[in-house]
Amino acid sequence: PSLHLLRFFLHEYRNCYSLITQNKAISLFSKENQRFFFFLYNSHVYECESILVFLRKQSFRLRSTSFRILLERINFYGKMEHPVVVFSNDFQ
């Protein structure tokens, strides 16, 4: 959605200046437009970084869940190898 909005702004920005100054050629990277393009670039970078942070948080949650399951499984297999010791410790 934000890329469509970016394209819309660029299109309208170009059309607005072409209607006002029809005889002058306007460069997209002139000094007047530089702040606008820095803003657009920073918003794009922010969007990409937020997606990466979201994916990092999701992968960390999956890793911690799988690690917890792995520890429980190791503990379970340890109890299955020595059931007499485990049961005798539970009833003392």
Report on this structure.
Residues 1-92 form the Maturase MatK N-terminal domain. Belongs to the intron maturase 2 family. MatK subfamily. Keywords: Chloroplast, mRNA processing, Plastid. This is Maturase K. With 92 residues, the chain is mainly α. The protein has one domain. It is 82% helix and 0% strand. It has 3 helices and no strands. The longest helix is centred in the middle third of the chain and has 48 residues, at 34-81. The termini are far apart. 0% of the residues are buried.
- Briefly note the structural class of the backbone: mainly alpha
The total tally of domains equals: 1
What order do the helices and strands follow? HHH
Average of pLDDT: 66
- Number of strand elements: 0
From the structure provided, what is the oligomeric state, counting identical versus distinct chains? Answer: single chain
Helix content: over 70%
Q: What is the helix tally?
A: 3
Question: What percentage of the residues does DSSP assign to strands (E)?
Answer: under 5%
As residue ranges, the low-confidence spans are: 18-23
Outline the biggest β-sheet. none
Radius of gyration: 30 Å
Report the end-to-end length measured between terminal Cα atoms. 65 Å
